[in-house]
Amino acid sequence: MSRYPEYDEISALAEAAGLIVMGALEEDGRSLILLGAGPGFWDIFSTSPEASDGAADPVDRWSERVVDRLAALLDAEAIFPFGGPPYAPFIRWAVDSGRAWQSPVGMLVHDRVGMMISYRGALHLPRPIPLPAPISENPCLSCESRPCVSACPVGALSDMHGYRLDACHAYLDTGPGQRSCMKRGCAVRLACPVSTGAGRTAAQSALHMEAFHRR
């Protein structure tokens, strides 16, 4: 390409593909663009070949195809949060981007999608480009009700202790867990007021929970 795309153009390309830019930073002297699922993701993914072919890991396979295509277009390196070990440091990158922070329960919270964070890949560009400075602050700092700390029905996520993964999976095996979190999504993530910005549907959350609980 005769002129390398600017940040806003890369963001538009991502949104057209069903993703949003969830952060950007400099890494090893080159710009790194973090991509994730946003409000337009489900409509595009749900009509994709990966969504209906019955093979394992449909969202990961869709992400590989879409992010690889963007990387080829931008002469960038595609990086994914899955497929390890070793795993790329997406949590560090998210925090370093200035658009994600640790919530009271330990889970990351994002300035646009709240706790409905789903990083699908990253583009390590061949050069640095001008990046916008983060304009948001940690939304938890102004959240007086802190609904996330009491939302988990079995206290697997709390501000009093670390994530009790075994308790979470045990609850998901019960009837109430199957009817609530498995169908609608994690109660803690849903409780975050900023999570509405993700535009997450119940069907999308159910697919995420199925993949999470299977592992």
Order of strands, main sheet, comes to 1-2-6-3
Strand content: 5-15%
Biggest β-sheet: count, sense, barrel? 4 strands, antiparallel
Count of extended strands: 6
> Can you tell me the residue ranges where pLDDT is under 50 for at least 5 consecutive residues?
none
First-residue to last-residue Cα separation? 42 Å
List the total number of helices. 10
The number of domains is 1
| H-E order | HEEHHHEHEEEHHHHH
Radius of gyration: 18 Å
Overall shape: globular
Broad structural category: alpha+beta
The level of helicity is: 25-40%
In short:
The chain is of the alpha+beta class and 215 residues long. The protein has helices at residues 7-16, 41-45, 49-52, 58-74, 90-96, 165-172, 175-179, 181-184, 187-191, 202-214; strands at 19-27, 30-37, 77-79, 100-102, 108-110, 119-124.
Can you walk me through this structure?
The chain has ten helices and six strands; from the N terminus they run H-E-E-H-H-H-E-H-E-E-E-H-H-H-H-H. The chain has 215 residues and is of the alpha+beta class. It has one domain. It has a four-stranded antiparallel β-sheet, with helices on both faces. The protein has a two-stranded antiparallel ribbon with strand order 4-5. The model has no long low-confidence stretch (mean pLDDT 96).
Topology:
Layout: H1 7-16, E1 19-27, E2 30-37, H2 41-45, H3 49-52, H4 58-74, E3 77-79, H5 90-96, E4 100-102, E5 108-110, E6 119-124, H6 165-172, H7 175-179, H8 181-184, H9 187-191, H10 202-214
Name some characteristics of this structure.
single chain, 215 residues, alpha+beta, four-stranded antiparallel beta sheet, two-stranded antiparallel ribbon, 10 helices, globular
